[in-house]
From TrEMBL:
The keyword Transmembrane does not apply. Residues 1-30 form the signal peptide. One of its GO terms (molecular function) is hydrolase activity. Residues 102-289 form the AB hydrolase-1 domain. Transmembrane segments: none annotated. Belongs to the peptidase S33 family. Residues 410-503 form the Peptidase S33 tripeptidyl aminopeptidase-like C-terminal domain. This is Alpha/beta fold hydrolase. It comes from Amycolatopsis samaneae.
Amino acid sequence: MRVKRMRRVALGTVVAAGAGLLAGTATASAEPVQAGQPGLDRFYHQRVGWKACGDKDLDAAGARCADVTVPLDYARPDGRTITVAISRLKATDTRNRRGVMLSNPGGPGGAGLGMMLDVRKAMTPEVSSRYDLIGMDPRGIGRSSPVDCGWPVGIMLRSAGIDRAGFDRTVRLQADLARRCAVTEGPDIRQITTRNTARDMDVVRGALGERKISYFGWSYGTYLGAVYTQMFPRQSDRVVLDSAVDPRRYGVGLFQAMGKPNEAALDDWANWAAARDAEYHLGRTGAEVRALVEDLIRGAAKSPIRIGDYRVDEHLLPMLAFNPLADPRHNAALATSVRRLADAADGKPVQPNPELEADLRFVTRPTPETQNSGQAAVLCGDVAAPRDPEWYWRNIQRNRAALPVFGGFAYGPSACASWAPPVEPPTEVRNAVPALIVQATGDTRTAYEEGVALHKAMTASRLVTLQDVRVHAVFGNYPNGCVENTVNTYFRDGVLPRADTTCREN
């Protein structure tokens, strides 16, 4: 999931997913293919040709870009190759240069070439000047041999609806999305995985002539970073994992974990909107505002809401709330969106506000630049999902009362239910690689418990808790002096805090 707008792919995981239901599945903890083994030396020792990025912001910042060649299938290094696009903002303090810092913005499916332009704004000059800051479009994404399944929708994330008819429509849609990927991309799509992306990162390390890499990741990027530390512990330097995924739940379990915090976030927002009823007219109490949202969803199931050129049904409407709930700074935009949807449901001729328009366009009208079938390739290629539709239906029904708005999303099927089996088992993360884990207690994409679980799995890590803040992705996204000081100190000195740390709102 990217972090700032859903159209940029905000899963946490838009999003991400994991499964206790996969207990007993074999796990991979050792790296079977790495530098020095036959066939890989040419990738690790390739010459990197830097060039202009062809991106306004990156070029203006003085970044340079390159394409790094990697095997499509690391088990067959003499077979087909693909390229992975990277960007570099060079260290300016060459005397105290620390090395390279790779990054990932989340998703999965987030293009990361320009990510460090945002992140470095939260860095002190001491930190940003000592690292080559490396952005990267992971394999299958952006400029890195992108997956494009030719979907009729922009993203697979949907609510399964409020009744059996809506659920059955969702099952058919998700099966069709998986079928399109199998037909359009063929067997190569099964190599678009987190483990292969971690291997790509290590090839980048070697191609850049570095012994180790430092790393910063948001959301799904924390899972990628954790997998890298497990596969390449001796090549891992200073690692910061912000808004973390529990690797044991990566798969459908992570989606399930989103249900409760999103319902809580909806209540928090509803109370905010109720305090401003004179402006938005959504209800005088939080309960009234929530009731309005639930009524809109039920009404959209009977007759989709027509707003501008769009039709919003019960599958889309919860997702239009899911995105802004990840950050309290989007409260006003969400209130405006709900007000306009309510007016449209009443038959008034209204147009969507800019934020709602952007999200609707992303979800319903994919372009080669915005389509997000690469997210499915990674999620479904990493961990097998249950295939029986009835398993999902039973879970939705069991949780419908507690999760009236987001239960159909959290427990519903995705394209992964119809995907080919993964080419290798998922990674069991359990190591003593030092890392700093940052987690907000109100995170709606990767629940706070996810970060706590990763902290336990990475036994030499420290946890930085941002207390009582509803936000997904902190450092470089949500200003907080305590978090910024802790992260910058670690990147500067390489020394973790002596104990876990709690930060509060500025």
